[in-house]
């Protein structure tokens, strides 16, 4: 971990974030992700070594514990603070919960009270309003957003609009199309055409939620193999949708209010 942090820092990483929240079984079996929460001595040792190895801002992302009877996020938070970690991110579900139930934001408030380093809250923020609500309810210093940003990267802009007291804007169809095409290009550059073609299917479907004809789009895109085919389908889909409406259909995900 220390070597990895050093290498990442030397490569220009702006921050080093340690993920102690992953609940995936394969990861837990290898003692990684949220499994680390069960071994506080190991956490102390690991963080001390990583802290020595890098001068980059060091953050740690945790869940509330490994299971309902071992909710040790406060203890882990204090260990991290003592080790010189710069900020904590809490996703307040325990590892056994996976993504079930609701994130318990009251735990973010409890962690904030227990440590003096910044606490970033995470879990179930789906709208700009919810982001501000988490800050108001918990006193957290920042928010982190996961699933709601899939297909709706405009959410971040919407939060800034809300903070500034400006009206919340929605992307028009051409903005959505442009971002889908750009995302596809980045994926192809990063992964190559074969992997990008497969991996991008679900990402592209996220963007069209709430747009007329999106179920047809989803069916067609699931059969594509290459980014070139996907580009063609995106183009045809948006040509059709623009013909149906006047090109300013609201985008779902709560950003069209
Ligand atoms: C498909 C998927 C992949 C994720 N990968 C990571 C990851 O690599 N590192 C991490 O810290 N969290 C990861 N998370 C967890 C999210 O960062 C976040 O903690 C969780 O989704 C709860 O926040 P949300 O309700 O805003 O989605 C992942 C979540 C999902 C759904």
Structural notes for this entry:
The structure is a single chain. This protein is an alpha/beta fold. The protein folds into two domains: 2-149, TIM Barrel, CATH 3.20.20.70; 173-244, Non-ribosomal Peptide Synthetase Peptidyl Carrier Protein, Chain A. It is built from eleven helices and five strands. A five-stranded parallel β-sheet has the order 1-2-3-4-5. Strand 2 (58-63), helix 4 and strand 3 (87-91) form a beta-alpha-beta unit. The longest helix has 19 residues, at 173-191. 33% of the residues are buried. It binds flavin mononucleotide. Flavin mononucleotide (FMN) binds next to loops.
Summarize the SSE layout with pairings.
Elements: H1 2-10, E1 16-20, H2 25-29, H3 40-53, E2 58-63, H4 73-82, E3 87-91, H5 105-114, E4 119-122, H6 128-138, E5 142-144, H7 155-163, H8 173-191, H9 193-207, H10 214-221, H11 227-244
Parallel strand pairs: 1-2, 2-3, 3-4, 4-5
Helix pairs in contact: 1-3, 3-4, 4-5, 6-7, 8-9, 8-11, 9-10, 9-11
Flavin mononucleotide (FMN) is lined by residues 19, 21, 61, 91, 122-125, 145-148.
Low-confidence stretches: 246-250, 253-257
Characterize the biggest β-sheet: 5 strands, parallel
Helical residue percent band: 40-55%
Task: Tell me, rounded to a whole number, the average pLDDT.
Answer: 94
Bulk shape: globular
Going by CATH, the homologous superfamily of the largest domain would be Aldolase class I
What is the succession of H and E elements? HEHHEHEHEHEHHHHH
Tally of alpha and pi helices? 11
Ligands bound to this protein structure:
flavin mononucleotide
**How many E-type strands?**
5
Number of domains: 2
The strands making up the biggest β-sheet line up spatially as 1-2-3-4-5
Which CATH top level class of the largest domain fits? Alpha Beta
**CATH topology type of the largest domain:** TIM Barrel
CATH architecture of the largest domain: Alpha-Beta Barrel
β-sheet strand percentage: 5-15%
The separation of the N and C termini measures 45 Å
Radius of gyration: 21 Å
């Amino acid at each position: 971990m220390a070597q990895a942090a050093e290498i990442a820092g030397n490569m220009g990483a702006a921050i080093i974030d340690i993920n102690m929240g992953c609940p995936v079984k394969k990861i837990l079996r290898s003692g990684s992700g949220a499994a680390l929460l069960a071994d506080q001595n190991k956490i102390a040792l690991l963080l001390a070594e990583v802290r020595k190895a890098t001068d980059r801002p060091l953050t740690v992302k945790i869940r509330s514990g490994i299971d309902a009877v071992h909710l040790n996020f406060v203890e882990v938070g204090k260990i991290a603070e003592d080790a010189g970690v710069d900020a904590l991110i809490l996703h307040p579900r325990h590892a056994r919960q996976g993504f079930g139930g609701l994130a318990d934001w009251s735990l973010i408030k409890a962690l904030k009270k227990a440590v003096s380093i910044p606490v970033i809250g995470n879990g179930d923020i789906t709208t700009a309003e919810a982001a501000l609500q988490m800050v108001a309810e918990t006193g957290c210093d920042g928010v982190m957003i996961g699933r709601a940003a899939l297909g709706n990267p405009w959410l971040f802009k919407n939060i800034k609009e809300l903070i500034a007291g400006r009206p919340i804007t929605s992307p028009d169809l051409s903005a959505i199309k442009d971002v889908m095409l750009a995302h596809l290009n980045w994926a192809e550059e990063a992964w190559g055409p074969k992997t990008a073609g497969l991996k991008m299917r679900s990402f592209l479907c996220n963007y069209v939620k709430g747009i007329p004809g999106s179920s047809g789009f989803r069916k067609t895109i699931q059969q594509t193999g290459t980014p070139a085919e996907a580009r063609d389908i995106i183009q045809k889909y948006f040509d059709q949708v623009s013909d149906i409406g006047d090109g300013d259909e609201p985008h779902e995900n709560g950003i069209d209010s």
